[in-house]
Structure formats: structure tokens, C-alpha cells
Amino acid sequence: MADYVWTRQLGRARIAVITEGWGRWPLERGLAGVPEEQWRPEVEADHEDCIRLDLNVVHVALPGASILLDTGFGEVDPTDPARPVVGIRDITMTPGVEAGLATLGVRPADVTHVLFSHLHGDHVFGATRTVDGRRVPAFPRARYYVTAAEWRAAPEQHQRADLVQPQKDALEAAGVVELLDGEREVLPGVRLIPAAGESPGHAVVRVDTGDGIVYYLGDLFHQVAEFRHLDWMPRWRDRDTLVATRQRLLPRFVAERALLVIAHLRFPAVGRVEPAGDAYRWVPVEE
Ligand SMILES: [Zn+2]
User: What are phi and psi of 113, to 5 degrees?
Assistant: First the structure.
């Protein structure tokens, strides 16, 4: 197995995490309004006060369905210094999502469902590709699922509208978008659950494997210190909404003893949460 792809079979599901790479993310963007004396002892920051940020997407193979959770960067090169995309420095890229899927025997045309946690660039740029000068869905046989609230809100002001809007336009023109309101079952055992705060229509994905529950949390958390401090989060987030969402969902993750996958934790970014004091603790799986 390639070293940028992690897999585990659970019940009827094969869960795969593919990392596109990692970089250094300045805390001035990654952590809003927390005094240095509070974060310094708890955050693993480098000499320029950056944290490591990984770029992970998830694939779920079920009998009769091939499901991609977020699409990563696709054709957008986040290492191009002339076009800074997400404020991440010194990005190291792996062969990427499509190559990672190929190691699993999954071709783009095999993907049946694409579910978005949200439409920030690092999650949506890979939704389309350019073919003969036209932008078309990168997964030509898939339906693309996102909350209606997210579709309305994107691109947000702090996002690259010039790169996000063309993704939406091309998906809409192809007639492949499915907008969801509320908690919805997309296919048997797979639910998109609204989890706002990171963005107006952010959602998490719950998969019932028949041998345990797996959640893909998208950007509900960006670093492990956020589990101990539910009000720690990057800039430009809706603080009250995100705190309420975390408080609503964390007890559910604990009660279900769920396996969790997170977009930007260190690959493979798979673990569980446990209650700890008046908050929670991240417990990574042994690899
Ligand atoms: Zn993200």
C-alpha cells in the first residue's frame, strides 16, 4: 500500500484515507483570539508559530457504491507561490487523490457519490477537471451532495471566489448537484449531518459499517488542542455556532464509540474521542 493511503475494512465498508500532502499553517490564521500564554504550552508550533496541517480526503467502498468524501485540490496547485490559495506554507504534495484512488483500484468513473463537508477550496477544487478547455465533473458518473446552506453561502469572503465559483458553475451546468436540508440519508447507512460553524453549511458524514460507526468530520476540528478547548478555532469562523455544534456532536461520537477521520489532522488522522475533564481528548488509532 502506498504510504499516503491508509485503509481499514470495517464490516461492509472499506474506509480509506488519502493524504494529498501537508504544510505549515500560521497560527495567526489557525487560531483566533487565544492569548499566547494559553496556546503556547498546548500547541505544537514551530519556530515561526506554524502548526503542521495535513490535507486528507476519504474514500468509502460499500457494496454497490464508491463514495468520495471531499475532493481535495485537483488541478489547483497549492504550492504555486504566485497564487497563494489557503495560506499554508511549504506544502509537500503526495501523488494525490486520483493516484491514491488508483492504488485502491478505483478509477474516477467508478465513483458513484461525492459528499462535501463544505465548499472551502481545499475540499472542492478537485470536484472538476478541464477537458478540451471545458470544465467538467472530475468524477463523471457521480452525484455530488452538499447542504443547501453551504451551496448558498459559498464562496465565503475569505475564500478564493475566482477558484471556487467555477467549481459550482461546472457542477451545476452538468446537473449533478444534490442539495440537502437537515440530516439526510444519502444511501443506506450513509448520512450527511449538518454541523455548521466552520462554514455556514458545513456537514459531517456518518457511515454505519455494520461493524461500528465511522464519521468523517471535515473541518469540525483542525488541531488536537481544539478537543480540550471547544472554543478554539481558526479565524473567520462563526464561534458560537461552531462551539454549539461541537457540544452537540461530541457526546454522540463518544456514545457510539465511533471512529473519526479529520481532514487536517496528521495523516492518517483517524482516532476516537474520550471525555476528559470538562472537555475531550483525541486518541489516535494505532496505525
Ligand atoms: Zn479545510
Answer: -140, 135
* Alpha carbons 116 and 175: distance in angstroms, whole number: 16
Beta strands in 110-267 (DSSP E): 113-115, 128-131, 134-137, 143-147, 177-180, 184-187, 190-194, 203-208, 213-216, 259-261
pLDDT of residue 11: 98
* Cα–Cα distance measured from residue 274 to residue 265, given in angstroms and rounded to the nearest whole number: 17
Residue 273: all three cell numbers together? 474521542
Residue 107 Cα to ligand 1 midpoint, Å, equals: 24
Paired strand residues for 23 = 53
Whether 25 and 223 have beta carbons less than 8 Å apart is answered as no
Enter the pTM of the model: 0.97
213 CA from centroid of ligand 1 (Å) = 23
Q: How far is the CA of 24 from the centre of ligand 1 (A)?
A: 13
Cα of 72 to ligand 1 centre, how many Å? 9
Distance 200 CA to ligand 1 centre (A): 14
Which residue do the cell numbers 458518473 mark? 141
Contacts of 152 (CB under 8 A, 6+ apart): 200, 201
Q: Which domains does the chain have, with CATH numbers?
A: 5-284 (3.60.15.10)
Q: What integer pLDDT is reported at residue 83 of this predicted model?
A: 67
Strands 259-261 and 270-276: antiparallel
Q: State in Å: Cα 225 to ligand 1 middle.
A: 17
Asked if 62 and 190 touch (Cβ cutoff 8 Å), the reply is: yes
Enter the DSSP assignment of 29: H
User: How far is residue 134's CA from residue 269's CA, in Å, rounded to a whole number?
Assistant: 35
- 72 with 99: CB under 8 angstroms? no
Please list the alpha-helical segments (H only) found in 31-120. 36-39, 97-103
Segments in the chain below pLDDT 50: none
Residue 154 Cα to ligand 1 midpoint, Å, equals 14
